[in-house]
Task: inverse folding
């Protein structure tokens, strides 16, 4: 696994925001999330809705994502490093203080509850677990996939969002904004393995 030089430059742009990361105010972040319309897609408790815009676009859960991860992604959307028409427009209206507050707010929210009922695809869960171990996801995302610093929480994330993200990283549609080149990590995986990995991670808590 090698470090991707292209991932370093975006991190530099985040430094002004991260310099005062500890100053984020969760209450102010909640107010900003409501005012900016974040709740329309990402839910009132940071859990993406299961229908409508969220379902159509594969919108992620934000609850319990690491503070710095939220901040980094908002900076990347604001600067156009990450591409999404809605998020690019929304992030451009955010100040550095807004971004710090939003990071604090979403990080303070409890993670999603375990999915109800029995696993509809236990074979995919088993395969996904083996894939996660094989490509060492915990090296960056934490022992329990809880996210670490500016690296995303994967446990309990929306399955369709994870699947799309994995495919986009592998194809180059989405560029790496972390320290490791995701395209390199995912290179050996076929579509069935990525689908199984997304299913496995979505059921973790």
Result:
């Amino acid at each position: 696994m090698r470090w991707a030089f292209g991932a370093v430059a975006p991190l530099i742009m985040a430094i002004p925001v991260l310099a005062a990361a500890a100053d984020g105010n969760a209450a102010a972040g909640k107010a900003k999330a409501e005012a900016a319309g974040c709740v329309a897609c990402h839910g009132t408790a940071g859990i993406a809705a299961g229908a409508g815009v969220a379902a159509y676009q594969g919108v992620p859960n934000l609850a319990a994502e690491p503070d710095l991860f939220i901040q980094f992604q908002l900076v990347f959307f604001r600067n156009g490093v990450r591409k999404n028409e809605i998020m690019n427009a929304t992030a451009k209206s955010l100040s550095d203080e807004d971004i710090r507050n939003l990071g604090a707010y979403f990080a303070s929210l409890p993670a999603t509850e375990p999915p109800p009922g029995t696993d509809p695809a236990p074979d995919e869960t088993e395969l996904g677990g083996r894939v996660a171990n094989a490509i060492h996801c915990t090296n960056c995302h934490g022992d329990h996939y809880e996210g670490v610093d500016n690296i995303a929480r994967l446990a309990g994330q929306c399955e369709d969002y994870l699947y799309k993200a994995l495919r986009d990283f592998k194809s180059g549609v989405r560029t790496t904004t972390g320290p490791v080149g995701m395209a390199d990590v995912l290179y050996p995986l076929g579509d069935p393995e990525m689908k199984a990995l997304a299913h496995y991670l979505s059921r973790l808590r």
In short: The radius of gyration is 16 Å. The domain at 122-202 is CATH 1.10.760.10 (Cytochrome Bc1 Complex; Chain D, domain 2).
